[in-house]
Specification:
Length: 125
């Protein structure tokens, strides 16, 4: 499934946004020094939204216990986070349209129109 989530202008450097897409868990999409990334928003250590955390370079810090993840790979960097965070591929068209690709969802093999809701994270610029 490939889902259009917005335009590059909506994801300025340092921004974190929570995005809800039908058929997927809530996502955090952000821009780390020009690299747009997408991870599952709920931290795999507890019940915190990473979209409310802090972005420091390519490191996303969880707001609850300060565990952290590398946004490029989802790999856990700092404890108490230990397991990699679920990561989704981001594709950007020449015109700046941003898409998230997922193998999850009810019909993952098909590109389709699905409802997308964007919620500004704490660090929207
Ligand atoms: S809930 Fe994220 S590190 Fe604990």
């Amino acid at each position: 499934m490939r889902v259009t989530v917005g335009h590059l202008e909506e994801f300025p450097a340092g921004a974190l946004k929570r995005i809800t897409v039908d058929g997927l868990p809530p996502l955090v999409i952000g821009n780390a020094d020009g690299t747009v990334f997408c991870l599952k928003d709920e931290c795999n250590h507890g019940e915190a939204n990473l979209s409310e955390g802090d972005l420091c370079g390519f490191e996303l810090l969880c707001p609850l216990h300060s565990g952290s993840f590398d946004v490029r790979s989802g790999k856990a960097i700092k404890r108490p986070a230990k397991r990699p965070q679920v990561r989704f591929d981001v594709e950007i068209d020449d015109d700046g349209t941003v898409h998230v690709r997922s193998d999850e969802g009810p019909d993952a093999a098909r590109d389709e129109e699905v409802a997308v809701r964007v919620t500004a994270g704490r660090h929207e610029l």
